[in-house]
Amino acid sequence: MEPCLRQRLTAFFSGGLRRQAYWHLALTILIAAVIILLAASWTLSNIRERDLALQQNQLLEHYSAVLPRREIAWSTAAKQAQSRLEYLRFLEEPDAIAQPKLTAYLNAQWTLSEFSNLLILDGGNQVIFHHGSESDSLKSLFGEQATWIYVPQFHQLYRVFQFPIWLGPRGEGRLILFKSLSNSTLREIVIPQAHLQLSYHGQLVAQSHDTPPPSGENTLRIELPWSDGQAASELAAGPMLEIYREVVDQLPYSSFILRTGSAIALLTLLIWLSVGRWLARTAYRIETLGKGARLYAEGETREALVAELEPARQNADEIGETAAAFEQMMETIQSRAQEQQYYLETLSLLEEAVVELSVAGIILRASPGWNKIVHRKDAIGVSIFEDIHAEDVEMLQTQLNTLFAGEKQQISLRFRLRPQWVVKHETWVECQLLPNTHKNGKVTGIRGVLRDITQTYLNERQITHMALHDALTELPNRILLEDRIKNALSIAERNRHLVGVCFIDLDNFKVINDTLGHKAGDRLLVTFAERLRASLRSGDTLARWGGDEFVLLLPDMQSMHAIRNVTEKIVQSLQPPLILDGNEIRVTFSMGAVVYPSDGVDIEVLFSQADRAMFFAKSQGRNQVCYFQDMERSEPGRRELYIQSHLTLAVNQGKIETWFQPIVDARSGKCHAAEVLARWHDGEYGWVSPSTFIPMAESLGLIGELGLHIMKSSLDAAQVWHARGEKVALAVNISKRQLFTPSFTQHLLREFDERGLEHSMLVLEVTESVALSDVQNGAERVTELRKAGFGIAIDDFGTGYSSLSQLHEMRADELKIDISFVRRLDEPSGRSMVQAIINLAQLFGLKTVAEGVEDAATAQKLRDLGVDYLQGYWFGKPMPQAEFLAWLETRSR
Ligand code: C2E
Ligand code: CA
Ligand code: CA
User: Which residues surround ligand 2, an ion (CB under 5 A)?
Assistant: First the structure.
């Protein structure tokens, strides 16, 4: 009950500033009024008491003086009476004379006398004379020493005076005088407003008024013993004068209350008018401050606020200053808010979202970007976890905990959003979060930037996929393959298992590609890959190595037998023809297979052995599987291996020679250029054809080195000729792999720079399929070389199955008509074919070179057909440099 009451009281008193001020003021006035009243009453009663005491003292003083004076007067009168009686000497006479004389005298004088009764006693205390109406009674009552005597039957008190008196012959007697203390006695000494009573031994004997004495609060009552001048001890025997006096109240209580009340009321009015009004105004001004703050909190404009604060600002006091400061603060806050608004608007332009989270993950603030990301109208107050994919919530929580624990000062992470009906796909968000760390080190919140990275994520995934997979067949590419082989090898090493690595090359793919077109060729590769993959285990990897080459990785194999089973299965899988665009196509492949660890323990060795095995499989007529270990056992295999191993040596020792075959101008017969042809003579096997060792060098990775060696030596030779004034150009064969050796162009330019030769004196012979983007970017490489100023000749033109209409796409300077067409010149179809090639070449501004001219008739026919240059045994076979120089000299003569 009590707290309830207290609460109510508190509520009442704290109702409003003005009410509080009024209540405090009223309470103060009330307390002041009570205090004033009390103090005034206390003072009043004090004054009254003092007044009473004063009056009492005055009365006391007065009557203390009056009574002795009376006593003296009476005493003097008594003395005079005695003297008079003695002087008259009546008592010296005999009683008979004396008594009538005395009586007569006294009757004549007595009325004037103070004393109503008189006794005269002789020496033996015998009354000899008495006078006065009561004297008879008195003489019996009178005691010898009495000063006072009360006669009950008369209700009369007497003051008794005794004097010795000379009785003449009877000696000395005593004169007793009785002074009666009657009402009249008191009336004589009474003062105005006083009332006297005389009592004797508790018996009222006289009073000044007929009425009873006043009583009540305002009556002073003083008892004063009637002193007779005797010793104090005998005072008690005397009468007591009671003095009553009504004190006139100067200030009655009612009028006191009235006056004080009025004074308080006046004071209250004054206080109310001055302090109260001031308080009210001050409270009102403070209230406007409060109202202003409330208005601001409700989001009112600054203008409304300034209007509201107007009363508070009226006086230049603290409240006014506060109002001004408040306005200023508001202005600052508003401009901050404006800035923040701009900032947020700017932020809303961004795709990124800026958010602030509570420790519990509730969004406290968020830029519009976040609403966009999570597809909400307003995400404020919502837990961020509500929008996060159920599988990522734990991860995010764990990461946030590292921030709370102070383990990290910043985290960057990616997570998915909870799937929403608005978006069908997964939404990925990337965020960077920082803790809001309080001075005491406690994390009070989190802020950060979030970004929808779905597109980037998908792109990245795509890029990663692309980086590791072949775009056409979706098979792993070289990079992924190498990674998987490394893994497979390390696992196999531990488990003592075998790993099979098989190089697969489609047979005659070039032909298929050129016949059916690139797109069909691509589809064939896809179909082929699918067929192969279908017969593999899930752990096996089929990768695309490039072009029509594939690599099969068989990890974790138990035995050689198991590996052979797989390769056999693959061969079998290709027995049924492939279906391409509804057509049946029969494809075969050549495979070179190696086995870890028997054929090699590291990737490089395994790859080169597999390549060799595959090369051998091809050279053996294609459509077969060749195991490296089998190859070592068979005779042709051993020869192949021998050549392979000796080729490496020959290339490294620079034993490959550079020979030159002249190309002559068809009209003038002058030597126009020399085709550079590689020659290799091995001690055991004799001459090895470039058609054999060039592809071998390619597969062994020697072509870069070999090509450079040939280029260098041919350029050296050309330098010599040029020095001799023989302006013969060089036609150098460039194989596919050579062209794609990254540093090829760079090396070429350097060699030319070193020798100061003109770029135009070199013609690079590339085969038709290479020039026509057989491999991606092939055309680009050719274009790049041509831009550098080198001539480009399309070699073996006509064998590449490209349509003649594609000729304009080839960025070339010359066409080399293949030897097979030259052979068929005698046939009408062959002749018209060559004619067509020449016509087209002329149409596209290309020079033509005919190869394999072995006799004069053929040379003439070609001349007639309009061929620009001729090459063949008829003019000169390929020859070493010295011989070629000699040939040149005989020609010029
Ligand atoms: P190719 O570029 O078509 O070279 C012309 C081939 O025809 C040469 O064979 C040449 O000796 C031969 N030949 C020239 N005139 C006649 C003739 O009148 N009658 C006959 N029957 N043959 C003639 P070779 O030297 O055996 O070269 C074969 C292939 O090897 C070349 O064909 C070329 O593709 C390649 N090759 C030769 N040397 C190199 C080289 O240094 N680098 C590259 N990448 N390939 C080369
Ligand atoms: Ca050639
Ligand atoms: Ca050729």
Answer: 733, 765, 795
